[in-house]
Design brief:
The chain is an all-alpha fold. It has a domain of about 210 residues. It has a two-stranded antiparallel sheet. β1 and β2 form a beta hairpin.
Length: about 475
């Protein structure tokens, strides 16, 4: 089977899986088996693509022409390979977790949930494989629409309100800003193909480049750069597996992936490095990092704290891309991977705590590690990764971002990274402390509980192990990230 066939099958398998899940709605065991089969096929296809891309190959598919000179086309390069691996590896783990969560909480509409989840992965792989801006934009928009039923899963007024915010911010930003940026790129460069070194010629003014960058950064609302971030905490009304999908596997990663890909392949790092018209971006992302961290620190609701932590961590990726140095670009690519594995572990733990103990607030977690040791061990590993403490994967990506900032003499960025690391520790370490070293809280009902259902615990153990394994096995993602720059 050729690389092109593998790329197509990786995207088609989730669609066929969603169809099978819908047809098997009366048989939950068959429905979930089909989810695993589709996830397994997609994972195998993506893994089989790795050797060719690792060796420098760039498999490409052109399906048909959408507009004159612009086709629905796919091309796999190192950044897309990393993003595809994140989605493909975490999908089966998320499916395992979702089975335990959805059954453990007796959630309704489980068939719709698993079908939409599969379709979201198909869109995510389409974004990862996109060869041009228009292909990326189409899958980006469909991803927003297909995740809307997941956000509004509970179908109550709170969910519907959150859904309106979700669509309003994501569709509003992409249609009013991102689409204009794509059209402007076509008019200025004559192409929207992702091209190493960028497509913007020397005749384009610095002011035009700065304006175009602003349209892309704020138009890619899934990256959640302030003030286009409110959709993300609003979406926390969804079941926890949806939160994990939004924050780790698909939606927000599609946002920061798109930003990094645009910076590398549309603007070109060397082309815009040193231009005064792009100097504003590190300050905007730095503000988002600090402000979101402060909100997270003040949030007692655990999922809300994790949501604002995500907003902050996403801007690490955008900041790294904005620094425009080879080391910072490597750091941006690595942080997409390390944040995905660490943050999904944290959301898995939050969902397990809700399922087993019915607790949603940080102030309710005293002594919970005594009853849920596996859950809190996984939470601890995920938290250490986001703080950037070894031996967790987040250490490497943050280290490369710091090196990139130092390489370019971006001292303000270094100060932001240092302050945010302290804030990360301030909103994660107290949770770990009270969970392990405080007496268990009396909820007034004499409720005894242990761990969540075993599929949830197993998924957490897998992702927490992945956080540690990435620290010791960072050579492979680092080698792919290095292909993005000339070192």
């Amino acid at each position: 089977m050729t690389a092109q066939h593998l790329m197509l099958l990786a995207m088609v398998a989730p669609v066929l899986g969603a169809l099978g899940v819908s047809l098997a709605q009366r048989s939950p065991n068959l429905r979930e088996t089909l989810s695993f089969v589709a996830a397994g096929i997609a994972l195998v296809c993506v893994l089989l693509l790795v050797p060719e891309v690792y060796a420098g190959g760039r498999p490409e598919i052109v399906l048909f022409e959408i507009l004159p000179g612009v086709a629905l086309a796919f091309r796999l390069e190192p950044l897309g390979m990393l993003f595809a691996l994140v989605a493909a590896v975490l999908w089966p783990v998320s499916t395992l977790y979702s089975i335990g969560y959805m059954r453990g909480n007796d959630e309704s509409h489980q068939t719709r949930f698993f079908a939409c989840f599969a379709l979201a992965i198909a869109c995510t792989l389409g974004i990862a494989f996109s060869a041009n801006l228009l292909t990326l934009f189409l899958f980006y928009e469909v991803l927003t629409l297909i995740t809307y039923p997941l956000v509004t899963h509970h179908q109550d007024e709170e969910a519907r309100k959150a859904g309106r915010v979700y669509l309003g911010f994501l569709l509003g930003s992409s249609l009013s800003l991102m689409l204009i940026a794509i059209i402007a790129t076509w008019m200025m460069a004559g192409t929207v193909e992702f091209t190493p070194g960028g497509v913007l010629g020397a005749d384009i003014s610095n002011a035009a480049i700065g304006g175009l960058l602003a349209l892309f950064i704020f138009g890619i609302g899934k990256a959640a750069v302030m003030p286009f971030h409110r959709w993300l905490p609003a979406a926390m009304v969804a079941p926890t597996p949806v939160s994990a999908l939004l924050h780790a596997v698909a939606v927000v990663k599609a946002g920061v992936f798109s930003v990094v890909k645009v910076v590398i392949y549309i603007f070109g790092v060397e082309r815009i490095a040193g231009l005064s018209s792009v100097d504003w971006l590190p300050f905007v992302t730095g503000f988002t990092i600090i402000a979101a961290s402060v909100v997270a620190l003040r949030s007692d609701n655990l999922k809300r704290r994790l949501a604002y932590s995500t907003i902050s961590q996403l801007s690490y990726v955008v900041l790294a891309a904005a620094l425009l140095t080879p080391l910072s670009i490597i750091g941006a690519a690595l942080h997409i991977v390390s944040h995905a594995v660490g943050k999904i572990t944290l959301f898995f733990a939050a969902g397990a705590i809700y399922t087993a103990a019915h607790k949603t607030k940080v102030s309710e977690l005293d002594g919970i590690a005594k009853r849920m040791p596996w859950t809190m061990a996984a939470f601890t590993v995920g938290a250490l990764s986001l703080i950037g403490i070894p031996p967790a994967a987040g250490f490497y990506s943050k280290w490369y971002i710091v090196l990139g900032a130092a390489e370019g003499g971006h001292w303000t960025a270094l100060a932001v990274l240092g302050a945010s690391t302290l804030l990360n520790a301030a909103y994660f370490l107290p949770i770990i402390y009270v969970a392990y070293f405080c007496a268990p809280a009396d909820d007034g009902h004499g409720r005894e509980h242990g761990e969540a259902p075993w599929p949830m615990v197993a998924a957490m153990v897998i992702t927490a192990t992945g956080v540690l394994a990435l620290f010791f096995g960072m050579e492979f993602p680092l080698a792919l990230a290095r292909q993005l720059v000339s070192l």
